[in-house]
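Researcher: We're teaching a course module on how sequence relates to structure. For the next exercise, students receive a sequence and then see the predicted structure as C-alpha coordinates, so they can try to spot secondary structure elements on their own. Here is the exercise chain.
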Amino acid sequence: MQFRQCLRQCLRSSNAAPVPDCAAIRYWERADRCRVRDDVAPVLFVHGYAGNDHIWAPLRAALADAGFGQLIALRYNAFRNDIHQIADWLVEQTHRSMQATGADGVHLIGHSMGGLVVRDAVQARGLGGFVATAVTIATPHVGTALARLVPGPAARQMRPGSDFLAELGNRPVPDGTRWVVIHGGADRVVPECTELFRTPSPTVVRLRLDAAGHGSIARHPAVVAGIVTELLKSEDAAMQRFSLAA
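Model: And here is the predicted structure for the students to work with:
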Protein backbone atom coordinates (compact mmCIF):
# COMPACT_ATOMS: atom_id res chain seq x y z
CA MET A 1 0.00 0.00 0.00
CA GLN A 2 2.87 2.36 0.78
CA PHE A 3 4.28 1.85 -2.72
CA ARG A 4 0.97 2.75 -4.35
CA GLN A 5 0.56 5.88 -2.26
CA CYS A 6 4.10 7.01 -3.00
CA LEU A 7 3.75 6.36 -6.71
CA ARG A 8 0.47 8.24 -6.89
CA GLN A 9 2.06 11.18 -5.13
CA CYS A 10 4.85 11.20 -7.71
CA LEU A 11 2.29 11.09 -10.52
CA ARG A 12 0.76 14.36 -9.34
CA SER A 13 3.85 16.22 -10.50
CA SER A 14 2.98 18.95 -12.99
CA ASN A 15 5.66 17.91 -15.48
CA ALA A 16 4.10 14.51 -16.20
CA ALA A 17 3.94 13.42 -19.84
CA PRO A 18 0.57 13.68 -21.61
CA VAL A 19 -1.51 10.61 -20.92
CA PRO A 20 -2.68 8.77 -24.06
CA ASP A 21 -6.41 8.60 -24.72
CA CYS A 22 -8.26 5.87 -22.84
CA ALA A 23 -5.19 5.07 -20.76
CA ALA A 24 -4.83 3.88 -17.19
CA ILE A 25 -2.34 2.21 -14.87
CA ARG A 26 -2.81 -0.93 -12.77
CA TYR A 27 -0.79 -1.29 -9.56
CA TRP A 28 -0.99 -4.81 -8.25
CA GLU A 29 -0.98 -5.42 -4.54
CA ARG A 30 1.26 -8.25 -3.45
CA ALA A 31 -0.19 -11.15 -1.52
CA ASP A 32 0.85 -11.55 2.11
CA ARG A 33 2.30 -14.95 1.33
CA CYS A 34 4.84 -13.42 -1.05
CA ARG A 35 8.37 -12.78 0.14
CA VAL A 36 9.20 -9.36 -1.23
CA ARG A 37 12.82 -8.44 -1.87
CA ASP A 38 13.62 -4.80 -1.25
CA ASP A 39 16.57 -4.90 -3.63
CA VAL A 40 14.72 -5.84 -6.84
CA ALA A 41 13.68 -3.39 -9.53
CA PRO A 42 10.08 -2.54 -10.44
CA VAL A 43 8.52 -4.44 -13.34
CA LEU A 44 6.36 -2.64 -15.92
CA PHE A 45 4.08 -4.54 -18.30
CA VAL A 46 2.81 -3.35 -21.70
CA HIS A 47 0.03 -5.36 -23.35
CA GLY A 48 -0.46 -5.65 -27.11
CA TYR A 49 -2.79 -4.19 -29.71
CA ALA A 50 -6.42 -4.49 -28.54
CA GLY A 51 -5.17 -6.38 -25.46
CA ASN A 52 -5.49 -5.75 -21.73
CA ASP A 53 -3.61 -6.41 -18.50
CA HIS A 54 -5.42 -9.71 -17.80
CA ILE A 55 -2.85 -11.44 -19.99
CA TRP A 56 -0.27 -10.95 -17.25
CA ALA A 57 -2.06 -12.85 -14.46
CA PRO A 58 0.16 -16.00 -14.35
CA LEU A 59 3.37 -14.02 -14.83
CA ARG A 60 2.35 -11.48 -12.21
CA ALA A 61 1.73 -14.24 -9.68
CA ALA A 62 5.04 -15.93 -10.46
CA LEU A 63 7.01 -12.68 -10.16
CA ALA A 64 5.32 -11.90 -6.86
CA ASP A 65 6.27 -15.35 -5.59
CA ALA A 66 9.86 -14.65 -6.66
CA GLY A 67 9.96 -11.48 -4.55
CA PHE A 68 9.10 -8.78 -7.06
CA GLY A 69 6.80 -6.42 -5.17
CA GLN A 70 6.44 -3.46 -7.54
CA LEU A 71 4.38 -4.64 -10.52
CA ILE A 72 2.82 -2.01 -12.78
CA ALA A 73 0.74 -2.55 -15.92
CA LEU A 74 0.00 0.11 -18.53
CA ARG A 75 -3.41 0.14 -20.19
CA TYR A 76 -3.95 2.03 -23.43
CA ASN A 77 -6.12 2.22 -26.54
CA ALA A 78 -4.12 1.39 -29.67
CA PHE A 79 -6.97 2.53 -31.92
CA ARG A 80 -6.36 6.16 -30.87
CA ASN A 81 -2.64 6.38 -30.12
CA ASP A 82 0.54 5.60 -31.98
CA ILE A 83 3.48 3.67 -30.57
CA HIS A 84 5.53 6.80 -29.90
CA GLN A 85 2.82 8.23 -27.65
CA ILE A 86 2.51 5.02 -25.66
CA ALA A 87 6.31 4.72 -25.41
CA ASP A 88 6.58 8.27 -24.08
CA TRP A 89 4.01 7.40 -21.44
CA LEU A 90 5.97 4.26 -20.56
CA VAL A 91 9.10 6.38 -20.13
CA GLU A 92 7.22 8.71 -17.80
CA GLN A 93 5.85 5.86 -15.69
CA THR A 94 9.28 4.24 -15.54
CA HIS A 95 10.82 7.36 -14.04
CA ARG A 96 7.89 7.76 -11.65
CA SER A 97 8.27 4.18 -10.44
CA MET A 98 11.99 4.66 -9.84
CA GLN A 99 11.32 7.89 -7.97
CA ALA A 100 8.69 6.21 -5.81
CA THR A 101 10.81 3.16 -4.96
CA GLY A 102 14.34 4.56 -4.98
CA ALA A 103 15.34 2.02 -7.65
CA ASP A 104 17.94 2.94 -10.26
CA GLY A 105 16.41 0.77 -12.97
CA VAL A 106 13.43 -1.32 -14.05
CA HIS A 107 12.43 -4.39 -16.01
CA LEU A 108 10.09 -3.98 -18.99
CA ILE A 109 7.87 -6.71 -20.46
CA GLY A 110 5.83 -6.25 -23.64
CA HIS A 111 3.50 -8.62 -25.45
CA SER A 112 3.00 -8.29 -29.22
CA MET A 113 2.83 -4.56 -30.03
CA GLY A 114 3.83 -3.92 -26.42
CA GLY A 115 7.28 -5.22 -27.32
CA LEU A 116 7.60 -2.49 -29.95
CA VAL A 117 6.58 0.06 -27.31
CA VAL A 118 9.36 -1.29 -25.09
CA ARG A 119 11.89 -1.11 -27.90
CA ASP A 120 10.88 2.41 -28.86
CA ALA A 121 11.17 3.54 -25.23
CA VAL A 122 14.63 1.99 -24.85
CA GLN A 123 16.11 2.72 -28.28
CA ALA A 124 14.55 6.07 -29.14
CA ARG A 125 12.88 7.67 -26.11
CA GLY A 126 15.71 7.79 -23.57
CA LEU A 127 15.25 4.69 -21.38
CA GLY A 128 18.41 2.95 -22.55
CA GLY A 129 20.33 3.47 -19.33
CA PHE A 130 17.51 2.53 -16.97
CA VAL A 131 16.31 -0.89 -18.16
CA ALA A 132 17.95 -3.98 -16.71
CA THR A 133 15.84 -6.45 -18.71
CA ALA A 134 13.61 -5.86 -21.73
CA VAL A 135 11.35 -8.76 -22.64
CA THR A 136 9.45 -8.94 -25.94
CA ILE A 137 6.85 -11.69 -26.34
CA ALA A 138 5.41 -12.53 -29.78
CA THR A 139 6.44 -9.10 -31.03
CA PRO A 140 6.35 -8.21 -34.76
CA HIS A 141 9.85 -6.76 -34.84
CA VAL A 142 9.76 -6.39 -38.63
CA GLY A 143 5.99 -6.09 -38.93
CA THR A 144 2.97 -8.31 -39.44
CA ALA A 145 0.77 -8.52 -42.53
CA LEU A 146 -2.38 -8.60 -40.37
CA ALA A 147 -1.69 -5.00 -39.35
CA ARG A 148 -2.98 -3.99 -42.80
CA LEU A 149 -6.43 -5.24 -41.83
CA VAL A 150 -6.95 -3.35 -38.56
CA PRO A 151 -7.41 0.38 -37.86
CA GLY A 152 -5.44 2.97 -35.95
CA PRO A 153 -2.06 4.74 -36.14
CA ALA A 154 -0.31 2.00 -34.16
CA ALA A 155 -1.50 -0.62 -36.65
CA ARG A 156 -0.08 1.40 -39.52
CA GLN A 157 3.27 1.48 -37.74
CA MET A 158 3.26 -2.33 -37.49
CA ARG A 159 2.81 -2.87 -41.21
CA PRO A 160 5.87 -4.45 -42.88
CA GLY A 161 8.06 -1.75 -44.41
CA SER A 162 6.60 1.10 -42.34
CA ASP A 163 8.72 4.16 -41.62
CA PHE A 164 8.44 3.41 -37.91
CA LEU A 165 9.87 -0.11 -38.22
CA ALA A 166 12.61 1.05 -40.58
CA GLU A 167 13.68 3.81 -38.21
CA LEU A 168 13.56 1.50 -35.18
CA GLY A 169 15.54 -1.17 -36.99
CA ASN A 170 18.28 1.31 -37.86
CA ARG A 171 18.64 2.63 -34.33
CA PRO A 172 21.44 1.24 -32.15
CA VAL A 173 20.58 -0.90 -29.16
CA PRO A 174 21.96 0.74 -26.00
CA ASP A 175 24.43 -1.26 -23.93
CA GLY A 176 23.53 -2.47 -20.46
CA THR A 177 20.10 -3.98 -21.16
CA ARG A 178 19.56 -7.74 -21.35
CA TRP A 179 17.01 -8.52 -24.07
CA VAL A 180 14.79 -11.58 -23.91
CA VAL A 181 13.03 -12.33 -27.20
CA ILE A 182 10.26 -14.95 -27.00
CA HIS A 183 8.32 -16.49 -29.89
CA GLY A 184 5.71 -19.22 -30.27
CA GLY A 185 5.92 -21.75 -33.08
CA ALA A 186 2.12 -21.86 -33.43
CA ASP A 187 1.77 -18.07 -33.69
CA ARG A 188 -0.42 -17.20 -36.70
CA VAL A 189 -0.33 -13.44 -36.04
CA VAL A 190 3.43 -13.00 -35.88
CA PRO A 191 5.12 -15.78 -37.89
CA GLU A 192 8.64 -16.69 -36.88
CA CYS A 193 10.14 -15.02 -39.94
CA THR A 194 9.00 -11.64 -38.59
CA GLU A 195 10.20 -12.28 -35.06
CA LEU A 196 13.85 -11.53 -35.76
CA PHE A 197 15.36 -8.90 -33.52
CA ARG A 198 18.17 -7.58 -35.68
CA THR A 199 20.80 -6.55 -33.20
CA PRO A 200 24.43 -7.59 -32.78
CA SER A 201 24.04 -7.24 -29.03
CA PRO A 202 25.48 -10.27 -27.17
CA THR A 203 22.88 -9.79 -24.44
CA VAL A 204 19.94 -11.22 -26.39
CA VAL A 205 18.34 -14.38 -25.01
CA ARG A 206 15.98 -16.15 -27.41
CA LEU A 207 13.24 -18.53 -26.27
CA ARG A 208 11.00 -20.48 -28.68
CA LEU A 209 8.02 -22.65 -27.79
CA ASP A 210 6.74 -24.81 -30.64
CA ALA A 211 3.18 -25.20 -29.36
CA ALA A 212 2.54 -21.65 -28.15
CA GLY A 213 0.16 -19.33 -29.99
CA HIS A 214 0.05 -15.56 -30.14
CA GLY A 215 -2.36 -14.99 -27.27
CA SER A 216 -1.53 -18.00 -25.12
CA ILE A 217 2.24 -17.57 -25.09
CA ALA A 218 2.36 -14.97 -22.31
CA ARG A 219 0.51 -17.42 -20.02
CA HIS A 220 2.52 -20.49 -20.99
CA PRO A 221 4.19 -22.03 -17.90
CA ALA A 222 7.54 -22.35 -19.65
CA VAL A 223 7.45 -18.70 -20.74
CA VAL A 224 6.45 -17.55 -17.25
CA ALA A 225 9.25 -19.57 -15.67
CA GLY A 226 11.76 -18.39 -18.26
CA ILE A 227 10.95 -14.72 -17.74
CA VAL A 228 11.19 -15.01 -13.96
CA THR A 229 14.55 -16.74 -14.35
CA GLU A 230 15.90 -14.06 -16.69
CA LEU A 231 14.79 -11.19 -14.46
CA LEU A 232 16.42 -12.83 -11.46
CA LYS A 233 19.61 -13.29 -13.48
CA SER A 234 19.62 -9.56 -14.21
CA GLU A 235 19.07 -8.80 -10.53
CA ASP A 236 21.91 -11.12 -9.48
CA ALA A 237 24.23 -9.57 -12.09
CA ALA A 238 23.36 -6.07 -10.83
CA MET A 239 24.06 -7.09 -7.24
CA GLN A 240 27.39 -8.57 -8.26
CA ARG A 241 28.40 -5.36 -10.02
CA PHE A 242 27.37 -3.37 -6.98
CA SER A 243 29.42 -5.60 -4.68
CA LEU A 244 32.49 -5.29 -6.90
CA ALA A 245 32.10 -1.51 -7.07
CA ALA A 246 31.84 -1.31 -3.29
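Model: If you want an answer key for the exercise: Strands lie at 24-27, 43-46, 71-75, 106-111, 131-137, 178-184, 204-209. The domain at 2-245 is CATH 3.40.50.1820 (Rossmann fold).
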